[in-house]
Design a protein that fits this description.
Elements lengths: L4 E9 L2 E10 L4 E8 L2 E5 L4 H12 L6 E6 L5 H7 L4 E8 L2 H8 L6 H5 L4 E5 L2 H6 L7 E6 L19 H8 L2 E11 L5 H10 L1 E12 L4 E11 L4
Parallel strand pairs: 5-6, 5-8, 6-7, 8-9
Antiparallel strand pairs: 1-2, 2-3, 3-4, 9-11, 10-11
């Protein structure tokens, strides 16, 4: 008999109880992995198209090779693994504030964990991404920064994240990019004109890509947004 539900991990965090679970989804006839924080669903392996597009669209805008890439938010790992599949990536640093999430991958609990942690280019770092980008950069800067932590610029998991989505916050983040480097951001909301204006005040060649994907639960099509911006060349 197929087990319909299995809790793989549960951890208390400052933002609420973090749960990783696996369940059988009849709509697709296979297991899906889901993450909840408190009462909120954060992510599901049923919907990974836009998370992967965050990496592919972001890296498509970069130039050159031996790219140094920073991913903010590890989650189920699909953004990071999509980045590693670009042969130009020389190193990939993934920052996550929750030790449990890093532990899931180190224990290879998730479908892409082995590919992620088995790649010598990968470094998983326990830290607060938002605190990191507020600080002056230390050492080399990045060719691309890919961010997927909050639901959207207007719907943050924690109020302390809100300052990043302002002109001042984006300017601070841009200091961590090389000239011409790319910032890419995933959002669960449609394109936000006010945020796009802030993005355009700091970056050039900005875009808001709407990423459509089939939703087997509704039988329709759902959409996310991937924002792109390039740090101006001095």
């Amino acid at each position: 008999m197929i087990a319909r539900f299995e809790e793989l991990d549960w951890q208390p965090t400052p933002m609420g109880d973090l749960t990783l679970r696996r369940r059988f989804e009849p709509a697709v006839a296979h297991d899906v992995y889901e993450v909840k924080l408190g009462d909120e669903y954060l992510m599901s392996s049923l919907f990974t198209v836009a998370e992967e597009a965050l990496a592919t669209l972001g890296l498509a805008a970069t130039t050159g090779g031996s790219l140094t890439v920073l991913v903010g938010g590890l989650g189920l790992g699909y953004t990071a693994v999509a980045a590693l599949r670009d042969p130009r990536v020389g190193s990939l640093t993934v920052i996550d504030a929750l030790p449990a999430v890093i532990g899931w991958h180190e224990r290879t609990l998730l479908p892409v964990s082995a590919e992620l942690v088995g790649d010598s280019r990968t470094a998983l770092t326990l830290d607060d991404f938002f605190a990191v980008v507020r600080r002056a950069p230390e050492g080399s800067r990045y060719d691309a920064i890919l961010l997927d932590v909050d639901h959207s610029p207007r719907h943050q998991l924690d109020p302390s994240h809100a300052d990043l989505y302002t002109t001042a916050g984006l300017q601070s983040l841009a200091r961590h990019l090389v000239d011409g480097g790319i910032f890419a951001l995933w959002s669960d909301d449609p394109p936000d004109a006010a945020f796009q204006a802030d993005l355009e005040s700091v970056f050039v060649d900005t875009a808001a890509h709407v990423v459509d994907f089939d939703n087997p639960l509704t039988g329709g099509v759902s959409s996310n947004t991937v924002y792109i911006g390039r740090r101006p060349t001095a």
